[in-house]
Each structure stands twice: as structure tokens, then as C-alpha cells.
Structure of Amino acid permease:
Amino acid sequence: MAETPLVGRGGVKYASRDKSYFEKRGLQRYAGVWSLWALGVGAVISGHFSGWNFGFATGGWGGMLVAGIIIAIMYLGLVFSIAEMSPALPHTGAAYSFARTSMGPWGGFITGLFENVEYVLTPAVIVTFISAYFGSITGIEPAYYPVLWVVFYLIFLGLNIFGVALSYRVTLTVTLIALAGLVVFWISAFGHMDFNRWALNIGVGPDGAAVELPEGNGPWFPFGFSGVLATLPFAVWLFLAIEQVPLAAEESVDPKRDMPRGILLGFATLVLSAFMIVLLNPSIVGVGSFALSSSLEPALFGFRQIYGDAGATALGVVALVGLIASFHTILYAQGRQVYSLSRAGYFPSALSITHSKHKTPHVAMITGATLGLVVMLVIWFANGGGGDGETQLGDDIIGSVLLNMAVFGAMLSYIMQAISFILLRRNLPNIARPFRSPVGIPGAIVTIIIAAVTLFYQMQDPNFSKGVVWVIVWCVVGIIYFAAVGRNRLILSPEEEFALEHRSKA
């Protein structure tokens, strides 16, 4: 294999590769606007079935609503930024690519490392929700949940590996089913609402913790503005992973036209769905914000109050499909994220080899999925192998470790992407931008501020340290590898060539 040594800025060394290197790493263009829309919505939709509702315990109903609005503003700035950057830099690397061009190889790698934490661990969080819903529907004992994790990983890795067209068809189908289920839920809830009695049934006890108000009619903000801020990390779950859409740039038929449309249509869909679920789910008679604050199955809980156990089973299946939609699409993103860093030499280049027939990054997907599954199993058995069932699963594994780790990585990557946007606007004002963010640099600055505040309040959770320590270890190991090995083996991938070319013109 021919190599041409090249020394780059930041103490890195490049080697160009001949055609055979990239022929073994080819992708297939398939995705249009609606495929990209489904990729974004499908990645997030599980968060409308589970996870967001824990914020009622820290902010009450009003706190959850305002936190959701603040987080939506953060994501508005983010999605406008990536909607501008992704067609201007239409590479699979996405966040890494943006940061690589704006901040050099070290900035690109660190941004990619933060995003890697999110995409390796978010499927692990979602598959724990899947096992909880599946266990509720079938009655399977929590002790068998690890078997379910392995089975779901195998099934959806297979669907992702055996062709990009198949993967996108599955994504679109399960996303539409999940959204249809949510619409049925909203319509059903409208006839069974008592907002003041049930949504406002949280007060503050003598110890400062949430208590249930039997007659409802409590304050909108029982914990004040500090409660709103403490709820921000939970509101993130209503939008987490919409930013993965640019990872499909090299599989998009026309990324310069379709990427901004797919991203923005997906975000608009999620804003509507988030508002409806936050308003309606706790307002259902017999549900309430207090009960939802500790529920692993908030939508299923609400549907059960309306239709009873028999009807709830139907929504339980639809909710399961919604969770599967997110699991499937984030496995897709995980593969492309690892693939892009590997193809450029930041990760071992063997990880970027694509399937000879299906042109999917199967090695990257299998490696990332295996790592996520191993992390899950280690945490599971370290916490007693499930302990007392759902409580152990929800509180220790999801809330304390995996979910916090995924959100921590995401917030850091958002800050880096917003900084990348600002630097690209200032340092490369003349690159072709098929779409320009209407909120520009001020919108990116707002994204940085809200993400930083969210991180601060996430760290106020005493259980947070269980996750953040391991994220720090993950990043330190990655940086040591890059400093010792990776920086000497970079490859002129499309992201790297674009960055080097335009840095020389800046």
C-alpha cells in the first residue's frame, strides 16, 4: 500500500493511501429528505416514551415545561448550526469533521471522542428501557434482561449491516409506527384530562423533596427557578440524538439540499411531540406528575389508566417499537461515527472496513455495540445482577450511570460543535454554504451557555459521579492512544483533505 508521509499542524503525521484503501471503505448513497427525517426523529422518539419524566421530581410540572423550552432553545441553536455546517462539509465525520476543520486535528479528535461516548452508550440506555417495557408486557423476570440485551443487539446489528436501504426502510417504518402510537395516545388523553388535579399534584416536603398533593392544585413551580435548572438534564432526553443526522452525509443522495431539510423537519416534529407528551401524560386522571416522576413506563402508565390492562398492552407494543426505532437508528449513527474516525486514522483503521456486498461499516458497528454491551454487563453485575428488579435497573444502571454518561458526552460535543460553527463563520466566511443559520453566531453562543448550565446541574446529582468518572477515564485513554499512536497514523480521508485545503486558504 503506497504511503506519502506528510506532517500536519498539531504534531500529527499523515499517510495518503492508494485507491484500494478507500475501495474497502465505500458507502452507498440512498437517503433522501424523508429518510433523513426518520433518522433524526427515530433516534429521539424513545425519549418521548421514557426518561424525560424523571424531571418532575426536581422541577414539578411547570419546571419540566420551562426546562423543556430552554432545552428546545439550546437544540434550536444546535440544529441550525449543524444544518449550515453539514451541507458545507458533507462528510460522514459530522461533529468530528466540523471541529477538525475549525480547530485542527486535536480539536477534531476530542470532539469525536465526546460524541463517541454518546453514541456507544445511548443504545445501551435505550435497550434497558426496551427490556423494562418488554418485561412489563410479557412478565419476564428482570434477571433475564441481559439475555434480552444481547438478543436485541444481534437483531438490530443484523438489520443495520445487511444493507443501507434495508436499514432506512426499517427506520422509516418503526418511526412512523411510534409517532402514530403517540398521536393515538394524545387523542385518547384529551378526553381524560384534569390538569389542575393531576399535573399539579407535586409539593415540597419538609426535607425539600417532592411530595404528592392528594387534591392536586399545587404550584406550577414547587421548587422555584432552581428546580427548573435542575430539570434541564432530564429535558435533554426529549431531543437527544437529533444531531446524528449529519453522520449520514455520504449516504445522502443530495446532502447539500436534503440535509438541512431533514434536520429541521425532524426537529419541528420533535418539538410538537415533546410539548404534547409533557402536557398530556401527567394530566390523565389517575396518573399525575408525582407518580410519573419515578415511572420507567410513563406512556404505558397513562394508557393503562384510559383503557385498562388490555388496551395498555397495545400501546406497550407501540412504545416498544418507539424504543426500537431509537435503538436501531443510534446503532446506525454509532457505526458511522466510529467509521469516520477510523477511516481518518484517529481510531485503528481496520475498524472502518465496510461490508464487501452491503457497503455498511459492519466492523465499526460490531465493535461499538460490543463495547456498549460489555459496559452494560459490567455495571449490571457490579450492582448485584439486577438486585430487586426494576428499581435497581432504573435507578442504578440507567439513572446513575449509563444515562448520565451519555448526556455528559452529548453536552460536551454540543459545546464543541457550537464553537466549531462560530470559528467556521469567522475564519472561513467564503466556503459554500447552501443553507445559512438564521440565528447565526448568537444562536450558537446560546447553545453553549445552556449546555454548560445543563452540565453544571447534572453534576449536582450525587449519583452523577458514578458515570462522569468513567467518561473521564474513557476520554483519558482515548487521548493517550491518540498522543502515542493515532496522531502518527492519520490518513487523508475526505474530512482531512477538506480541512487541510481550507486551512491553507484561511
Notes: Confidence is low (pLDDT under 50) at residues 387-396. The domain at 5-505 is CATH 1.20.1740.10 (Amino acid/polyamine transporter I).
